[in-house]
């Protein structure tokens, strides 16, 4: 049982006129643990009860059932609750060990569908560090929402349409070779694309050729369609290599091209609701009442725009998945676009637009600057992951030279380090990326948390991996309480992360739990033969289970040995 629930239940019996949810929202955790495990301020009852808060606190103390508490004290207007650490601790450990997989789960989402638009790289361009954030934040949110019983649907809205394909086709027809593309698809296509832009500066006819090729593609010309499908397929294969490394899987790869035949209906709907207005030859939706610039739906040459496609996608997703929430994990700079998207859908009479949420995030920088390599190009995500694995391998070789399957562990540690480092930062913050720092085994890193879990398993192996299901789990050692209290808060933490769409809440929690456990390990002899040895091992097992669960929510694997 979540330890806070015990306090809420005790107060609810003596405050029958107040909703449990209101009581819970007022309960605080004192920073100074000598003031109790939880505190309840009586201020907010003063108006209702026409009494001084101090007096209310005293009256509540007289009525409250103190079973299950070490003591309850009144300090000024506060009721301070001290839990019966031994009994409560045993019940927390029991709950974890009896069902580690479901510990921390809840039914907040009641099985409702949540679409998550995430990652979304452009075809024929390599995935850069810039794609990391959307991918790992989206994946972690899917895992966290699943834990509170939503049904996440991960959508990779690929950038697989647009004028860049006309440019690529022009470049390929002029300078390309099939063998070259097959040997190294993405880098070759990227090279053609860059060359096109360089040559087009002095030869503007190339732009006309590109427009002509894109028009062919839009008209379904067989050669243009063949090239488009080939470029898309080659790109996807390379992306999948990176997604497999990150252990990220998608439910849909419906990208921009998928909505080509779905935009006419959007225009018709807007016209039927008299929402389209002409402005300088273009067609717009006026959003003045939302304090937003007009949404440009159709350019003067009749071409539709990005927002038209996103309107089609939103309507398609609602019809297909009947979502209770629809999340777009897209950089901070797109804030205005999503405000416009929601406002246009609202104007169309779709109240479900209230359930669309833009999940913005900050930039990754290097040395305080936006990421770029020395040549002024992007930093490739695949290279960063490879470098991280090599660094992890080097450290593992120094620490544990005889480790079996060291390569697999180096992958789990290296990739996990990059993912964890991204997610421990609050998503709206930009942060500086330094690979050496990220893959360290000490400090606030993913490997530090992974190592704490591996250590817990090593202790259990030394003890012969006893069955801890039905053992007495009462621990009198006061050093254990901080760890047990942290374990008891896990469900609360998961719900907060889900409510705020904030994976860093989980990452920070796992760091703190790992620290608390290492502190406990430093001060208490776990394997000493006495009547609490099995209870201490139950604590170690519970730590291992919860750290593994927390890391899994972030999309980070937990090696059994390091």
Automatic annotation (TrEMBL):
Record flagged with keyword Nucleotide-binding: yes
Compartmental location: Cytoplasm
Coiled-coil parts of chain: none
Pfam family, one: tRNA-synt_1d
Gene Ontology molecular function: arginine-tRNA ligase activity; ATP binding
EC numbers, comma separated: 6.1.1.19
One Gene Ontology cellular component: cytoplasm
Segments carrying motif 'HIGH' region: 121-131
Entry's Gene Ontology BP terms: arginyl-tRNA aminoacylation
Catalysed transformations (reactions): tRNA(Arg) + L-arginine + ATP = L-arginyl-tRNA(Arg) + AMP + diphosphate
SUPFAM superfamilies (alphabetical): Anticodon-binding domain of a subclass of class I aminoacyl-tRNA synthetases, Arginyl-tRNA synthetase (ArgRS), N-terminal 'additional' domain, Nucleotidylyl transferase
Keyword Isomerase: no
Major location (coarse): cytoplasm
Domain of life: Bacteria
Ranges for domain DALR anticodon binding: 449-562
UniProt record similarity statement: Belongs to the class-I aminoacyl-tRNA synthetase family.
Complexes and interactors: Monomer.
PANTHER family assigned: ARGININE--TRNA LIGASE, CYTOPLASMIC, ARGINYL-TRNA SYNTHETASE
NCBIfam families (alphabetical): argS (TIGR00456)
Protein name (database record): Arginine--tRNA ligase
